[in-house]
Design goal:
Chain A: Belongs to the class-II pyridoxal-phosphate-dependent aminotransferase family. The complex is a heterodimer of chains A (552) and B (80). Chain A is of the alpha/beta class. Chain A is built from 19 helices and 15 strands. Chain B has one domain. Chain B is built from 3 helices and no strands. The chains are: A alpha/beta (552), B mainly alpha (80). At the A-B interface, helix 4 and helix 17 of A face helix 1 of B.
Chain lengths: 552, 80
């Protein structure tokens, strides 16, 4: 389906028009449809295609039963803590030595109440050791516990070919195919694995220069800089860009790396509601009208921190509106495309391409190579002045070891594949396959009646479980059916909204997705997870015809 | 056949109860404690209902009859 002549420099020419799906006639899935229709004239020209996100609320009885479950869990937690405190039960958690009992306590007992009493009971669903490449299928080491998840032991058996629905392997570049990894092996033999230095001392290799030029070309910006670790890219570079006297406007659901970087910088942080442009505009207006808290001087800098795709919700940022706000109020925009680079957009260039905007609209483009490129590390891209500033002032450049050469080569080969520079259309096929898989998976899950959050185009699919008892049951039963899923509970999500998060990959075949969907269907009936009150649309055949790509 | 599907259905209901009240996560002695407590409460409530509801209903019945008219009063008192 790809037009070969249009692919060679990685940019598509005719493709944009065909993406304009006007679904105004069909009454789509409910929940909160934020499309072109609702917001008056000015918004009609901002979004070139419909923006549909779902955040359906579960029926009231679900919330009540969730609280009942947590209530019972809390009562038993208190009972167990009482027994532990009075010596009726062995204590398995960390404690101080006998000689130090009179000192100021080192371990805060009450704050780990949730960890001790709820997390420990279902702990076998996390930190499962993987013993193969995390491709579309992987192998797990089997482990059993004798004392209710306080300790584990390995039986020695490996569970083979578990379908992987949890790895961030969006484009399927986590592979062990020898042909694909030829250049990586060559670089490994040429450079070895260690760098043993920081960027500013002796850690800048020609590989880094090559990679940075390639990243800049891929994104369509002037320059880029790569770092060894994705988390550290955010937490170490935001303090270099903002300081005291600056204002950071950060989304409610931003990732911990952004929050840590913002706190380290010393700037004032204000939080706006998730993806809510009215909240952001109000904060911007208040900031400009009232200035800094006591002196009422103007803020030195106002920077907006958002992510491309939010990994716990699956929602996509409203980039056109944010860019129009930022140009109106003269603020800066920092876009963290950790999950969206490679995963959305017609050629995989992220949310900037997805909305049809130009990369010059965003001041600081940040992303990671961990997710779609099958490597490790992060980058910051933008104008040459910005990147040159970061080369001298970033903590990461001064103190952190730079990216190791085989990993850099893996990113180079993945990016060249995506851009079509290796002479094949494989990269584009992967992006298309991911898009198809995402839409198919989400559509089937909606039809089955599960509550799914997020945008229709995002490959991160959170399926809501709500009740704490179901978290453990869901993950264990899926493993019995040979499917590995990631479930998330309280501290990472609000307490009543625990979920299972699926990451669709381009490497998943239709059969694998069908296996997973059938297992989900069965399990959904058994565990009663199909809370959605909205069934599929009333005109299924009309809905199929408006799809651009037919699944075949 | 019907017994089997009935048993499966009951087992499924029991599983739902376990999941909702988090007793799926409990160790066996905790489950024993929890079920004992629940069953005790249920037995006590049903015993209370058994003893007191007929008395309450007949008292209410008498009260409403008194409101409607005196003619049936004598017969009711003889029956009692």
């Amino acid at each position: 389906m790809a037009n070969p002549s249009a692919v060679c420099n990685g940019h598509l020419h005719h493709h944009q028009k065909q993406n304009n799906l006007l679904k105004s006639g069909v009454c789509k899935k409910n929940g909160i449809t934020k499309g072109m229709k609702k917001n008056g004239v000015s918004n009609g020209t901002l979004y070139k295609k419909t923006f549909i996100e779902h955040f359906e609320q579960a029926p009231m009885y679900v919330a009540v039963l969730t609280f009942v479950g947590f209530g019972v869990g809390t009562i038993f937690g208190y009972l167990r803590d009482f027994m532990r405190a009075w010596g009726l039960e062995k204590r398995n958690i960390a404690e101080e030595r006998e000689q130090q009992k009179d000192f100021v306590p080192l371990y805060q007992d009450f704050e780990t109440f949730y960890t001790r009493n709820l997390y420990m009971r279902i702990r076998d669903n996390w930190n499962r050791p993987v013993c193969s490449v995390p491709g579309p299928q992987f192998d797990l080491m089997e482990r059993v516990t004798d004392d209710y998840n306080w300790t584990f032991r390995f039986t020695g058996r490996t569970i083979k070919n578990v379908i992987n629905m949890g790895s961030y392997n969006y484009l399927g570049f986590a592979e062990t195919d020898v042909n694909a990894l030829k250049t990586v092996t060559r670089e490994l033999q040429k450079y070895g694995t260690g760098i043993c230095s920081t960027r500013q001392e002796m850690g800048t290799l020609d590989k880094h220069v090559e990679l940075e030029k390639l990243v800049a070309k891929f994104l369509g910006v002037e320059d880029a800089m790569v770092f060894g670790m994705g988390f550290a890219t955010n937490s170490m570079n935001i303090p270099a860009l903002v300081g005291k006297g600056c204002l950071i406007l950060s989304d409610e659901l931003n990732h911990t790396s952004l929050v840590l970087g913002a706190r380290l910088s010393g700037a004032t942080i204000r939080i706006f509601k998730h993806n809510n442009m009215q909240s952001l505009e109000k904060l911007l207006r208040d900031a400009i009208i009232y200035g800094q808290p006591r002196s009422h001087r103007a803020w030195r800098k106002i920077i907006i921190l958002v992510e491309g795709i939010y990994s716990m919700e699956g929602s996509i940022v409203r980039l056109p509106e944010i860019v129009s706000l930022k140009t109106k109020y003269k603020a800066y925009l920092y876009l963290d495309e950790a999950h969206s680079i490679g995963a959305v957009g017609a050629t995989g260039r992220g949310v900037v391409e997805y909305f049809g905007m130009s990369p010059g609209d965003v001041d600081v483009l940040m992303g990671t190579f961990t997710k779609s490129f099958g490597a490790a590390g992060g980058y910051i891209a933008g104008k040459k002045d910005l990147v040159d500033f970061l080369r001298t002032h970033s903590h990461s450049a001064v103190y952190a070891t730079s990216m190791c050469p085989p990993v850099a080569e893996q990113i180079i080969r993945a990016m060249k594949c995506l851009m079509g520079l290796d002479g094949t259309t494989q990269g584009l096929q992967r992006v298309r396959q991911l898009g198809k898989n995402t839409r198919y998976f989400r559509r089937r899950l909606h039809e089955m009646g599960f509550i799914i959050y997020g945008n229709d185009d995002s490959p991160v699919v959170p399926l809501l479980l709500y009740m704490p008892g179901k978290i453990g049951a869901f993950a264990r039963r899926m493993l019995e059916k040979n499917i590995g899923v990631v479930v998330v509970g309280f501290p990472a999500t609000p307490i009543t909204e625990s979920r299972a998060r699926f990451c669709v990959s381009a490497a998943h075949t239709r059969e694998m997705l069908d296996t997973v969907l059938n297992a989900l269907d069965e399990l959904g009936d058994f565990l009663q997870l199909k809370y959605s009150r909205y069934s599929k649309s009333s005109h299924p055949e009309l809905y199929e015809e408006t799809r651009f790509e037919h699944e075949d | 056949m019907d017994i089997k599907s009935m048993k499966n259905y009951l087992y499924w209901l029991y599983c739902q109860f376990e999941l909702i009240t988090c007793s799926y996560l409990m160790e066996p002695w905790e489950k024993l404690l929890f079920y004992t407590f629940n069953i005790t409460m249920l037995v006590m409530i049903s015993y209370t209902a058994y003893i007191f509801i007929p008395v309450h209903i007949s008292t209410a019945f008498q009260f409403f009859l008194h409101l409607l008219g005196n003619q049936y009063e004598n017969t009711v008192s003889i029956v009692k």
